[in-house]
Design a protein that fits this description.
Helix content is 70%, strand content 0%. It has 124 residues and is an all-alpha fold. It starts with 8 loop residues before the first helix and ends in a 9-residue tail after the last helix.
Length: 124
């Protein structure tokens, strides 16, 4: 399963920003259905197949869902939210690290290509 089968992060954000009173009943129904389908997709899709952005979005959504459940369990909402923020930070840092190491690999390979074969062939 790929991210393209999941609800796009920008779509989720747009839906949350737009107040419900500005949406038709059909739009609200569609959002609820696609939200539930995305939650199922989140659980079905292996972490190794998710993009870093999708991991952050899933972590955040899981935090929201857990906070809703745990608000009656006695665990402070701030503690739950903080745990998921830390998880999201980890995924963001991983994404940055992967990007940076990829950039370094490109530099290293281009430096190797550039210096290869530039030695002198003549003798003194």
């Amino acid at each position: 399963m790929s991210d393209k089968l999941r609800k796009d992060f920008s779509t989720k954000l747009d839906e949350k920003i737009t107040p419900d009173d500005q949406k038709t009943a059909g739009q609200q129904l569609k959002e609820n259905v696609t939200d539930q389908a995305d939650k199922l997709g989140s659980k079905a899709q292996p972490e190794s197949e998710k993009s870093h952005i999708q991991k952050v979005a899933d972590s955040f959504q899981q935090g929201v869902d857990d906070a809703k459940k745990q608000s009656s369990d006695g665990k402070p909402l701030t503690q739950t939210a903080g745990e998921y923020v830390e998880t999201a930070k980890k995924y963001v840092n991983d994404a940055i690290e992967n990007f940076t190491s990829g950039q370094q690999n490109v530099k290293d390979s281009s430096a190797t290509t550039t210096t290869t074969g530039t030695g002198s062939t003549g003798t003194k």
